[in-house]
Amino acid sequence: MDKPRAKDKGPMTPNITELKSKFETFNDIKTTSSLLYWDQATNLPINGGAERARQIATLTKLGHDILVSTDVGLMIADSYDWALNQNKDNEDAAFVREAKRLRDLESRIPGKLSMAMAQHFSAMYDAWAALSPKNDFKSLQPFLEQSVNYSMEIASCFPEYNHPMDALIQFSDPGTTTAVMREIFASLRKELVPLVQKVRNSKQISRNCLQGDFDEASQMRFCRTVAETLGYDFRRGRIDMSPHPFMTRLGGHDVRITTRVRRDDMTDCLFSVIHEVGHALYEMGMRENLSGTILANGVSSGVHESQSRLWENRIGRGKPFWDYFYPILQKEFPTFNHVSADDFLRAINQVEPGLIRVDADELTYNLHVMIRFDLECDVLEGKLKIKDLPEAWNARYESDLGVKVSSLKDGCLQDVHWFSGPFGGSFQGYTIGNMLSAQIYEAALKDMPHMESEFSKGNFYDLRRWLCVKLHQWGSMLRPDELIKHATGEPLSSKAYMAYLNTKYRELYQLS
Ligand code: ZN
Questions:
Q1: Which residue ranges form the domains of the chain, and what is each CATH number?
Q2: Helix (H, G, I), strand (E, B) or coil at 56
Q3: How far is the CA of 62 from the centre of ligand 1 (A)?
Q4: Which of 73, 293, 303, 370 is most buried (most C-beta within 10 Å)?
Q5: Is 276 tagged catalytic?
Q6: Which residues lie near ion ligand 1 (Cβ < 5 Å)?
Q7: What is the pTM of this model?
């Protein structure tokens, strides 16, 4: 006689060993592909781009074929009902649900298209790295036009969406739509624009003390000390140089970051490192059991950015952090012996509408994101042609931020996103991340009121541990909205974020 089944557990536990092994192969191919991208951004000889593009395309096709194979489809079908009836912390069930989600997405896109896109994005990255410093938009224009064609092809694979951008957003921020983002942007804009205006009309803060000549080796030595103190494990990671800083996970014990160094301004490298360390701590904090599986991945771009922005801004630009690190910085750069810690802190928090998103202060940052999001929508809706993109970009920077774009590399050529992936759907994660970082910090502070006094002593362990339990360990086991609720007790909202910005900048600029 069959054993009676537990009522709430659904069908008997299926054997998913073979399914797991298929996805392990898929995951190995994906991380090998990431290694090739990492190498391309850090080490590849200038003429190696074309072959590299083909190698990445080949791996993409191999991965695609595994995901869409009939075998895998049947194996998922066998275990999916079971997976739906299990607790959220059942790793096998979460694996089956994620396997189905990935397969469903992948099987909607023809293999040929995936392969062609991979080859195109890799070649375009090389072209961007060579041509953007020369402000050569004309030569990059055909690449971008081809990307827009690909984006529209992806959108046509998902006709159920209301907006072509929705089809792209689901790959980076599943569950979010263009309409939801437009609402978020409109409500943030209503509060941010007057606040920026008030700050602009008040007594200005100078950041002159941050400029000078900062030896590259000293910058890197200080950055490594910061990274290590925050918890970045150099036995499982390394820091290299690339034109646009990024983090990449090549395995549970190999999570790498990159940065860039400017001799005239040490904050560029420092805050890039802290930002990427934030991403890396998320990847390093996942359960060991998930290693090598498709669940060992940040769940969305918004959640990922919440981690990088939390460490970069909330902690890295805060007083407790500098109570500990300022004397160490002064030892590395004696020029800061003539600058008080208060003046330094004000300088790194200066609000100054500028041209570069990654250098933007916390108040104007989201305005940069909104410009990109709106332009992407206009292009995908057919209202804006790529050839007119620079002009449209420059006009928005003048109207929204009051700054004139003097060179294309500081204008529409500045971000790697449009030159290494689909056109559209990749910037909203930054604003979601900003909002979420404040929500998470507030929840952590409620649980650990002593947290900031520990930062002053160079102890970041308690927060890291809290983040690990509430958020990092889950990898992709929970969906983004479930994870946010689990970590903070509430759905995503801008309440904590706006309260934080209002308090911080009113005090900093002594606003009434
Ligand atoms: Zn980031």
A1: 16-169 (no CATH), 178-508 (1.10.1370.30)
A2: helix
A3: 28
A4: 303
A5: yes
A6: 308
A7: 0.94
